[in-house]
Each structure stands twice: as C-alpha cells, then as structure tokens.
Amino acid sequence: NPEFLREGFAVEDTLRPDRVVVGVASERAEELLREVYAGPLGDGTPFVVADYPTAELVKTSANAFLATKISFINAMAEICEAAGGDVVKLAEAIGYDDRIGKKFLRAGVGFGGGCLPKDIRAFMARAGELGVDQALTFLREVDSINMRRRAHMVELAREACGETFLGRRIAVLGATFKPDSDDVRDSPALNVAGQIHLQGGQVTVYDPKGTENARREFPTLRYAASAEDAVTGADVVLHLTEWSEFRNLDPRRLARAAATAHLIDGRNTLDPAPWRAAGWTFRAMGRPAL
Prior knowledge:
Blueprint: H1 10-15, E1 20-23, H2 27-41, E2 47-50, H3 52-83, H4 87-95, H5 116-129, H6 138-160, E3 169-173, H7 188-198, E4 202-206, H8 211-217, E5 222-223, H9 227-231, E6 236-239, H10 244-247, H11 251-257, E7 262-265, H12 272-277, E8 281-284
Parallel strand pairs: 1-2, 3-4, 3-6, 4-5, 6-7, 7-8
C-alpha cells in the first residue's frame, strides 16, 4: 500500500489522491481495502490492485520517472546555454505535447529533499540485488546531471564575482529544497551556499520558513531576517528556492540595497523584465545572457 504524499500537501493528497495502489495476496484482502477506502474517497479515485512486488515497485518507479524528467530538462538547459537557446521556451514548446506534459519541466539548480535522491539511489541498489542493475544504469546519469547543476550554479556565481569569492558577499534567497516547507534535507540551495562559503565567500541566507533548520545544518553561514536584509551589501544574489514571496519582491528597492545589482535565477521563476528595468544584471540557468 505505497503512499504518494507530496511534502507540504499531505492532507490534500490523503483526501484527494490521484490514485490508490494496493498490493494484495487474496481476494479477501482486496475486499477489505476497498471497504477501507470507499468511505473517505468515494468512487472517483482510481483504485489499482496489484501483487506485492508490483505495488512495492510503484513508488520508486514514479519517483525515478520524475527525477528523470527533471534531469532531462536540466540537460537541455546545458545544451541551450551552449547553443544560445532558451530552455524556458523549449520546455513550453515540448510541454504542449500531451505525451510529455508541462509538469516537472522547469530547468534550474536541480532536485533535492528526502525522497527523489534517496529513492533513485536505493532503486539502483535494489536492481543490483535482483541481478538487473543494467536496467537502471541511466539513473546514474540522472543523479549526475542533478548534482552537476549545483556545481554549475557555483560556477555562475564565481563568474559574477570576478572569478573569485574572496572578499565577496553573496545573498542566497532560499534554504529549503522546495517552497511551502521547512525541510532542508539535501537542499540544493544550502549545498550551493555551503560550497561558496568553503571557497571564501561571505554568504547570507534568507528563507521564509527554513531558517532554523538551515542554521542547525549549516551553522557557519549567516542568516537574515528578510530578503532585503540578505541582499544588503551583496555583490551577487542567487535565487535558489521558488518561494512566491521572492516573485513579489521589489527589484528597485533591492537594487538600492545591493552593492552590485547582479542576480542569478536558479529556478527560472522570476520575470527578467522588471529586474532588468530596475538596473539588475539578470542571468538564469539555461537562458541567454542579455
């Protein structure tokens, strides 16, 4: 009976799941589980009955597919940067194909958290135990692409700082691995912040909900009480978690606070136009540098 709860949406996903999957070994077990779910869910939710091995594979298969989709669009972002293309427009175009769909096609600094990275690595290990490790070798590249995005963000930040972090102040907007959560497990934002700090940068992090958890994981970083506080005096600003609060920031006000109005959007959720109009040098992963 695998669960498919998204972090931050557990109640919603419990009451209105997109499917229920059960693994059973008898007709009586199926009858009981249908009775259990009939009350809270009604007849509208797909109810998939499978054997134990299949049910056990569903969750990791789903997460492996989502991770692959994210890493695919991030690989396309690498190609777009080399070719001078725009990965946001590319994603929009291929997303209209209903065989592909629009979800999980936002290129950026990659995925993190307590599920996708762990699940794809565990899935590969399990395939090895079953003697079919060759079936999932592609997941090694999925994992590699994902980790490479973090390193690329560090490279972009270093370039913006004049090829050295020494004596530079970097503001990081976001600490959690996703918005609407305080979870910082395997957070790309904190990983990037930590790498820059280790290379001599003075890093200040702001996150609407994840500051306390981030402070416990990375106590040597600086933390601000607001986005404006984090940006004050910064040589470069990195947008690394797509909180709605960050989309509503005032670029002109922040430009006055920053030492250098240079922003790198690691999530491709900010509108470049108002930032550039406010005097910011705006760079986004997988998009042309204008």
